[in-house]
Structures
1.
Amino acid sequence: MTQTTHQQEKLDVASDTVLDVRNLSTQFRTQAGVIKAVDNVSFNVKEGEVLAIVGESGCGKSVSALSVMRLVPTPPGEITDGQVLFGGQDLLQLRNEEMREVRGGQIGMIFQEPMTSLNPVMTIGAQIAESLMIHKGMSKEAALDRAEELLISVGVSDARLKMDDYPHQMSGGQRQRVMIAIAMSCEPKLLIADEATTALDVTVQAQILELLINVTQESRTALIIITHNLGIVARYANRVNVMYAGKLRESGSAIDVYKKSAHPYTVGLLGSVPNLMASTEGKLDSIEGEIPDLSNLPSGCAFEPRCTFAQDRCRTEDPSLQAVGAEHIAACWEAEKVQGSK
Amino acid sequence: MTELSTAEEAMTPRASRFNMPEWLIGLLRHKLSVFGLVIIFLSVFVALSASVISPYDPLQQDYDNLLNPPSFGHPLGTDYVGRDVTSRLIYGTQISLTVGLLSVIIAALIGVPLGVLAAFYGGWIDAAIMRFIDAKMAIPGLMLSMLLLLTLGGSIMTVSFALGFGLSSAQSRLIRSQALSVKEREYFQAARAMGVSNFKLMFIHMLPNSIQPVIVQASLGVGFAILGEAGLSFLGLGVTPPTPTWGNMLSLAFDNLRSAPHLMYPPGIAIVLVVISFSFVGDGLRDVLDPRLRGKI
C-alpha cells in the first residue's frame, strides 16, 4: 500500500468514526493448509456506538478483534491485507512501540475468561495501576488512588480492601468488573469485549453487560461486543455484524438484522435462541451441519451445505455483500426470498 | 510425603491474609521438611558463629598430636598435621553452605533469564538458546566443572560458578516449559492488550507465574551443589587447601583411612545430613506449591 492512497483514505473517514476496518484479511498457515480466519472484512464503529459481532465459534469474530489489536500470534497467524484506521492512522502500519501505546491506552480489551484474565500473582490494585502508570505516566501512589476510584465506579464494594486482594479471592463477576476497570482506566476511545459475559452465570451476565454499556455510554466510548449469543445483543447493540466462516455475511441496525434478516445463517442463529414465549412442544431449532473446514472451503457460498434456501448458483458462486435495505447489507443470492420468509 | 498429612491437619483453618503465608504453614506440617529446616538453620548458625564456637584455629598445626582419636581436648580428633577436626568441620560448614547457595543463585541468574527469553520470543531465539543448553547437557556435569576449574583455578567463586553453570540448564528448561504455558494464559494476553512492554511482560507477568518449580529445583540444587563441591574437592579440584571444606577433609580422611578411620565420619555425616535436609525441604516445597496437591497437605 502506498503512502498516497493511505493519505487519501484517511480523509474519507467520517469525523465521528472511531474505528474503520477495511478489507481486513488474516490467515493462519497450518500443516493442514492456509486458513482464512478473516477474509476481506470491512466494518466501522462510531463514537458512542455499540457494535455487535456475532457468529458461531470459529467464524472469525475473535480473530478480527485480535487483528485490530495486532495480537494475532505470528507465526502461524498473519494479517495479509487491509487497513485498520483508528485515530487518523492505519494501525497495521504502526511500529511495535507505537502500537503498544494504542493498546490499553486508546483501545481497551476485555477477554472471555474472567477466571484467568487477571494475573494470579499480582494484587487487583497493582493490576489496575499498572495500566495507568504505563499510559498516563502516573506515579505509583497516584495510580493506586485512581485505581480505587475506578474500582468504585465499576461497582466493586469495599474497594479499599479489594485493592490488596489477589484474583483468586474474588468471584467471576467481580473479576470481570476489575477487567472493565482496567480496560476503561485510560479512557480509551474504543472498548472491545470479546465474549466478556459468556463464562458468567446468567444473572451476572446481565449486570456486567449493563455495566459495560453504562461506562461506555458515559464517556461516549465506542463498544464492540463479540458474542455468539444473539439474545444479549438484541437489547444493547446499535448495529449487528453477522460473520460466518471468516466473512461478513450480514450487517445492519439491530432491528433490521432481527426483524428483516436477509441471510439464512442469521435466521438460523435467531431460531436457535431459546424463547420463553415459544411453545414448549418440539425441540429448539438448530442449524444442521457444522462450520466448514476453513482450510478447504467449498467453491460457492460457504454456508450453502447447511442452507435451506440453497440453489444451484450457491454451489458455484460466492455472493458478495449487497444492499438489502437502508444501511443493511447481506451476502446471499436469495436475500429477498429469505426476508420474505419471515 | 502427603501420606504424613492427617485428618487433624486438614481441619486446621485456612490461612488468612494477616497470618503466615499458606505455603509456610504447609511446609511446617510436612514433618521431614521441618527436620530439614532444623538441620539447615543449625548449620547456618554454626557457619555464622564459626569464629566464636570453634575451639581452635582450623589452620593451626600441632605436630605433637597427629591423627589423634577423639578426646576431651579434640572432640573429633586431629588430622595428619595435627589440626583440630572439630574446628575444621565448623569452618567447613561456612564454605559448603556458601558454595551451595552461591551455585544455586548463579544457576538461577544464568538459567532463568535464558529460559524466559526463549519462551517469550520463541522462533529462532528459542531454538538457539535451547540447542546451546542441549549441547551443554551433552557434556557430563562433573567433566564440565572440572574443565572450568582447571582453567579458572579453585576458589569459592570459581567452584560456585562451575557448579552453578552446570545446574543452570535444568533451571532454563524448567522455567521455559512453565513460561510457555503462561504465554498461552489469558492474563498474559490481557497484559499484552494493555500495552505492557516486552521487558515487563517477561519479568513481571511471565516470571513470577513460572517461578515455583524453579524454587523447588533450587532447594534440591543446594544439596546437589554441596555434594558437587565435595566431589570436586575430593578430586583435588575444589577450593584450594588449606581452607577447610567438607570435601577436602574427606579427601584427607581417605588418605589416612587405615591409620585414622575416625576422620571420615565428621565430614561424611555432615555432608549426608545437610544434603538430605535440602532434599527434604525441596520435597516439601514441591508438595506445598504444587496446585494439584494444594489443600491435601
Note: The first strand of chain A starts at residue 17 and ends at 30.
2.
Amino acid sequence: MSILHTVNKSPFERNSLESCLKFASQGAAVLMIEDGVYAAMTGTGVESQVKAALGRLSIYVLGPDLKARGISEDRLIEGIQVVDYAGFVDLAAQNDKVQAWL
Amino acid sequence: MSEVVKKFLYLNRKAPYGTIYAWESLEVVLIGAAFDQEVRLMFIDDGVYQLVKGQDTSEIGMKNFSPTYRTLGDYEVKRIYVDKDSLAVRGLTKEDLVEIPWEDWETEEEIENIVEVVDAARIAELMDESDVIFSF
Amino acid sequence: MPIEVDGKILETDEEGYLANINDWVPGVAEVMAKEDDLELTDEHWDIINFLREYYEEYQIAPAVRVLTKAVGKKLGKEKGNSKYLYGLFPYGPAKQACRYAGLPKPTGCV
C-alpha cells in the first residue's frame, strides 16, 4: 500500500519532517508544502537528514509555495523534484492514501 | 508627542505565510508608528524568513506583504535586527534579505539599510534594554 | 454600494472603498469625486497617481503622515503638508484620496 506523505510545517519549528522521514517506508513519496518547503533548501541544518532520506524515498516540493517564500529552484537539494498543483493531484492519485504530517 | 519615549521591541519568530503572526505583527508596527516611540524590530528563528527577498505569492492566493517591509523606515522604524544563527541554520545570508532604507526627512540624514545581523549576546542585550516587548 | 463606472458595475465595501483594486480605472476617481461634489484638478491627480505608485511599490496605503512626508519629497515641500492635502481632499487625504485611487483604507485609519 503506497503512501503519499505531506509535510506542511517548517523543520525548524516542528518535528513533522523528522517524524515523517523516520516513519515513511522504503519507496514512499514525500511532498513538502507550505512552510514545509523550507526543508528543501541547500545549506540548512536539516540538509543532511533530507539528503539521507533521498536514497530510499521520492521527495517532492510544491513550486508555488517555494515561489511565495522567495526560494529559487537553483537552491534546492539535488534530487528533490518540483511539482505544481496538478503534480500534487497526480501524486495523490498515484498513491493509495495520503498521510499528512501536520 | 508623549514626553517619555519608550523602547518598543517587536519580536518576530514565525515564517510569513503558514500562520497569520507575521502579517499581524507588521500591521501592529504600522499602526503603532503613530505613537512616537522608539521602535525596533527583531527577527529570530523562522521569523528571518519574513525578510527574504523575491517572494511571489501569485500562485498561492495570499497577499504578498513582503514589499511592505521596505517602507518601515518611513514609519519611523529605525533599527531592524536579525539573528545570525537563525540565518545560518536556514542556509541564508544577509544578501538574501530585503534592504530597508531610513531617512530623517528634516535633517536628510540617511541610513542606506537599517537591517542589521547581530549575534545572540546582542539580542539578549536588546531585549533587556527594551521597555516593552511585543511577541509574534 | 456598487458604483457604475464606464458602464461597468464595480463592487465597493461598506465604506465606499473599491472591493477589488484591479477594478480601478481613472473613471473610478471621477465618479467618486462627483458623488462628493468635488471637481478633480491636476493637483488631485498628482496625489491619486502618487498613491497608486506607492501601493504598487509597497502593497499598502500609507498612513497620513507617511503620505505627507512622501509627497513633500516627491512633489515638493510646499505640497508636503496637511494644509495643502486637506485643501484638496477635505475628508482627509489618506481616506478620501486612497478611496479615489482604488486603494484599501489605510492601515491604522479608524
Note: Chain B is about 20% helix and 25% strand.
